[in-house]
């Protein structure tokens, strides 16, 4: 499994309860103290904080 690193390209899956709603691609911008992943979505404004369980790495950062 690829490691979630700052700068990695990811796909984020969005759920409400157990129901899948949508997914979006973005870039990892960092991490919160609570363990959430900060993602900058390609098509949505702002930074979204999501659980690492809902993040799948497409391309790892080259840093």
Oligomer: single chain
The gyration radius over C-alpha positions equals 11 Å
Fraction of helical residues: under 10%
Give me the side-by-side strand order of the main sheet. 4-3-2-1-5
Number of H- or I-type helical stretches: 0
Largest sheet: 5 strands, antiparallel
Instruction: Label the overall shape.
Output: globular
Count of beta strands: 5
Report on this structure.
The chain is 0% helix and 54% strand. It is an all-beta fold and 63 residues long. It has a 5-stranded antiparallel sheet with strand order 4-3-2-1-5, with no helix packed on it. The relative contact order is 0.36.
List the main descriptive attributes of the protein structure presented here.
63 residues; mainly beta; 5-stranded antiparallel beta sheet; 5 strands; globular
Present the secondary structure layout.
Elements: E1 9-16, E2 19-31, E3 37-41, E4 48-50, E5 55-59
Antiparallel strand pairs: 1-2, 1-5, 2-3, 3-4
Summarize the model shown:
It is built from no helices and five strands. The chain has 63 residues and is an all-beta fold.
């Amino acid at each position: 499994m690829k490691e979630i690193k700052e700068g990695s390209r990811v796909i984020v899956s969005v759920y409400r309860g157990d129901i899948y709603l949508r997914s979006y691609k973005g870039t990892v911008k960092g991490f919160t103290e609570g363990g959430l992943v900060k993602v900058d979505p390609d098509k949505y404004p702002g930074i979204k904080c999501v659980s690492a369980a809902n993040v799948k790495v497409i391309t790892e950062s080259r840093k």
